[in-house]
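Catalogue entry: protein
Contents: sequence, fold tokens
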Amino acid sequence: MSLEFKDVVSHIAALYRQGILVPFIGSGMSRPTCTDWTQFIKKIAKEAGIAIPKALEENKRVEAYELYRIADIAVTALRALDYESRAVKYRNALKACDSKEKDEPKIPIQTKALAKLFWPLVLTTNYDDLYWSAATIDETNKEFPRKRPYPVVMGRSLEDCHQVLRSLDEDSYPILWTLQGFLGGQVEKPEEIIRDPDRRRLLINQLVVGHQQYQRAINADEHFRRAFSEVFRRRSLLFIGSGILEDYLVNLFSEIIYHHGSGPYPHFALVDQKERERFDSSFLQARLGIIPVFYNNHNEIPQYLDALANQVRYWPSTENSIDILSQGIVHFSEIGYTVAANTQTDEPIPFKVILNKSRLPLPENNNKECSVVSVGRENNSPKEGAQAESFLKKAKEANLFESSSDWIPLDKRPSYVFRYGKAPIFAIAARRRDLRGYHHDRRDLSIIPEAICAGLVQIDNAKFEIVHLGPIASGRSRPWHPIHPFAQTIRGIKLFLNNNVVKNIRLINIYVVDQSVWYPIISRKVPIAELLSSELSTNRIELKDTEGNTESFSITLKESPTLKELLELCKLERVRWKIDIRPKPTDEKDIGEPSDDLVITPTMTLVLTAKVN
């Protein structure tokens, strides 16, 4: 019995929401802007001055082995050229038509549809930059449109394979894993995508076109086979526009299953109905773990991808709208943890922390619930940002406070904690206390745990039992990725539980309003249980030398260190290294190098690139 997309979309959506689904895209996703493989071989042979069979010239069917033979001859002929000249030949062959240089290539509709969703990892056998170009704009969030982080192009090198595997377990920048090399230059200039000329050369030299290159990629690069094997087993691949029956792919999939057995997740392949006779559904499922899903024509693929996006859409379009869910769809709306409070006494109590994929709600006006917003601070008064202003407006409409109410500081000056009159509304200013003048309102990750703890102490003293906590220090002008203040907020809750006897609070609801935070949470890339239960901090460091070689290692410490402390521990002189923090802020703004006193949270990867003298 064959399956259609409507039969599997709910299952695929569930895998996406778990962070398990990974697209595997082939040449069909780049049509009609780029050629298919047969036409590419025909054109590359002409670029190399190689005679081609009459059947290929007349666009008749040519057997795969014949195409491999022609490609092998063409690749051999092009080896006489330097890599830049070869790249020009390959780019010319990749064009679907002999368009003028001034013509702007169009990103295919199916690629745009795929890019509507955020994908931490995409596998591709394509050489082009069409998906890369489509993936940088977030069109799903109409309220706060922004640029997404650029996907980082990875190839088959040992260092790249290591990075791909780390991304399965750590929150990372999105990765475009180019399994057969990368050209670029279709929409963006290659140097805009990959700034390092040596790295551009490396990825161009990894192009797989001829038979010998296929054999080298699959058989010689053992580290690549092992890396692909782990991705194949730990993720559910969604093949789109990909020739999954190519001999080298079938052999690779078969080898993985033979040596390691089938993985825990099914794979799916969108297949043209016209190809049904070539695809034995029972063979694909039993031997390769791939479920073929048939479509009638290529125009349905964007519709399918739009349907998937609708099923996993992150937020309602407005705060007051109702998220209409299709029947049978399951959403991860909350994740709960129970920890022990008052362990320093003879009567420990259960204490709940629940993560909610929702906006911060108004508290019930029952003297048991309260809500907490994030603010800045000036002259010991809150500086309200968009979150606080919007929340107070809704609270006023709900008559949660008197018109004469104002913010009241609750702890020592300069204060971390404020309350809006007698209303069940609190504010936390995670700002340093030792700064004056222009920098008085500077954000500081290291302050967040202390400020959260101070806020919870005041709320507990006010006899509230349920706390609704919005994102802290995560406004749109933040100088860091929002996953880092989230981790520090969890640290703050632990600090409160460790240092205080809890009298009233029994539940803290943390509200996540950013997909770049929620996605790594449900993908288990944030060690929440460890953050709630242990002071230990495991920090990853990547070193890149002047030759482009990368070394990666981890350091575990009693608590989160500052950048200066971590560098000293690793015996690294800052002046010799360009320093970067991953993941970067989600809007990709240039914030310069981090300061010595930046706290390095467990959600950060410290990337050190050797400076060239």
Observations:
- The first helix runs from residue 5 to 17.
- The chain has four domains: 3-32+106-311, 35-95, 334-532, 537-610.
- The chain is about 35% helix and 20% strand.
- The first strand starts at residue 3 and ends at 4.
